[in-house]
Amino acid sequence: MAMDAITPNKDKARAEPVKRPTVQEAEEAVRTLIAWAGDDPQREGLLDTPKRVVNAYKEWFSGYDEDPVKYLSRTFEDVQGYDDIVMLRSIDVESHCEHHMAPFLGKAYVAYMPSAAVVGISKLARVVEIFSKRLQTQETMTAQICDAITESLAPMGTAVLIDAVHECMSTRGVHHKDVSTITTQFTGVFKSDADLRNRFLRMAGKG
Ligand SMILES: Nc1nc2c(ncn2[C@@H]2O[C@H](COP(=O)(O)OP(=O)(O)OP(=O)(O)O)[C@@H](O)[C@H]2O)c(=O)[nH]1
Ligand SMILES: [Zn+2]
């Protein structure tokens, strides 16, 4: 999808799409932040930095240009009657918090109980990646991953757990380095069946 088509995280208060600035405008904003940090944007070592930062942003925030549902649309039905949990453990999460634009890093655990069809397992990791490559709160991201799987696959239930360390808490502010944050979202049988939910948590190593 083109870089000028932005699909922001849902914000019900905003009706109009956000207009993406030009590369030149984005680079100028980085020069402003360099000066705000106290350095000279014209210093030789910093001359190419705005270009590098803008390119890094393209990668860190590439999730605005991707539609997770697209990845979940191809399913497979021939699984010989398989009817138990499908779970991906320890999916890397590299995201940025929407409050400080600081990284938060961790792991996601994603499971669903198939109703009929299953999906290619790599697509679940892609869904995590797409939502993580946006400005996020961990809670929003956990709910978005769960919703995308639930809406696309209509499984018997979906379970998502994210365990992450927020650099806005470890490198600034309260400076707590060893605190990780766990968020969970459960639907369907994972919500109604405590034994199944506990099985998921044990399989994630959190039970
Ligand atoms: N719930 C939630 N909070 C987050 C997340 N990422 C960062 N935060 C918190 O967002 C809050 C923002 O609080 P503010 O008081 O507005 O900002 P601040 O003055 O920079 O806060 P401190 O981080 O405490 O210095 C902080 O408590 C952060 O720890 C997240 O994913 N979920
Ligand atoms: Zn933060």
TrEMBL record:
InterPro entries (UniProt xref): GTP-CH-I_C/QueF (IPR043133), GTP-CH-I_N (IPR043134), GTP_CycHdrlase_I (IPR001474), GTP_CycHdrlase_I_CS (IPR018234), GTP_CycHdrlase_I_dom (IPR020602)
GO terms under cellular component: cytoplasm
Domain GTP cyclohydrolase I intervals: 27-203
Binding, Zn(2+): 97, 100, 168
Key word Nucleotidyltransferase present: no
Signal peptide range in chain numbering: none
EC number: 3.5.4.16
Catalytically driven reaction(s): GTP + H2O = 7,8-dihydroneopterin 3'-triphosphate + formate + H(+)
Family (UniProt): Belongs to the GTP cyclohydrolase I family.
Oligomer status and interactors: Homopolymer. Toroid-shaped homodecamer, composed of two pentamers of five dimers.
Protein name in UniProt: GTP cyclohydrolase 1
Species this protein is from: Hyphomonas atlantica
